Amino acid sequence: MASTVKESPDRPFTSGAIDSGSAFWESYISSRPSPPETFFRIIQTYHHGHEYHRTSVAHDVGTGPGNIARRLLPYFDYVVGSDLNADALAVARQLTQAEHAERMAFIKSYAEELLGAPVPEIARPGEADLVLVSECMPLLDAPKALAVFEKMLRPGGTLAIYFYGRPIFLGDNAAECNDLWARLADRSVQCFHPIKGTPSYPSYYRSAIALHSWLDNIELPKESWEHVERIKWNPDSPLSFCGPAGYDFELEVVDRTRDGESKRVFDHDFWTREMSAEQVSGYLSSVLPGYRDRPNAAGPLAEVDLLLQRLQEVMGGESATRKVTFPVSLILAKKR
């Protein structure tokens, strides 16, 4: 007899992280790259352009454990971080120093539902000077989310959307390390198969297309947004964590940009860190939480473990580290 239980669709990253506990988020912080201060200064320089200088309220959407929200404190009087993951928000509150607690709030909400969220009065809709969308835009329903972000901002306020992707290995044996990562990521994503034809497919497809398109599929309607800038660092590498071989569906590049919006920057020193093979493995787990526990993971995992072992050897051993950089896409816009 066929089951009458409705299959609950997965969402990329979100479903695997939702009940992961505080240990996952502590590992997330240690394994993920930290943006250089110059990145925040780029956003601030843009924010203060076009005769707008208010710095009262910033809202970090998809804040996770609050590591990016806390980076906004030197630039804004009050910072709100929102996320749908209660465990992540608990860690965010724990990691916020007492001296900063009065200047921060962390709230649980889907991005698309923020207009009804219990935000502090100072950060009510229409009061934000900056809405920063950190590493989560591919997971969102872009038109719905953008409509919400517009209502959250004051006229002239800044929307900043960014995403960083796979590690790009530099130095000796860089080509071999990057090839190993590509194969490793493809096989890890295959642990989630089948995707096409399942209730989860729309979310996975939306996310994959956004990354494959370097976020150029996200249209910022000129009726709502002006002074749009799209900056892409290291665009000679894919923004996506894996390649087309990682998916069981076809990818396409979608471009909804307007003339003059985009700028390409090749700078392998812009956003770097040292990583060991263990940290690379941790990074993979932070990108694909729960991938080892998927029902069809056994086949891909056998190769994943061999590839991780080979990567460690090529990197120089268990204690060796390698310099890596990242592809980064940043979208900046002003609310009309």
UniProtKB/TrEMBL annotation:
The record's section on CDD domains has: AdoMet_MTases
For whether the record's keyword set contains Transferase, the answer is yes
Lineage: superkingdom: Eukaryota
- Tell me which InterPro entries the record gives: Diverse_substrate_MTase (IPR051052), Methyltransf_25 (IPR041698), SAM-dependent_MTases_sf (IPR029063)
Q: Where are the transmembrane segments?
A: none
Annotated GO molecular function terms are: methyltransferase activity
Which keywords does this chain's UniProt record carry?
Methyltransferase, Transferase
Q: Which Gene3D superfamilies match?
A: Vaccinia Virus protein VP39
Methyltransferase domain boundaries: 60-157
Q: Name one GO biological process term.
A: methylation
Q: Does the keyword rRNA-binding apply?
A: no
This protein's name = Putative DUF4243 and methyltransferase domain protein
Lineage, top ranks: Eukaryota, Fungi, Dikarya, Ascomycota, Pezizomycotina
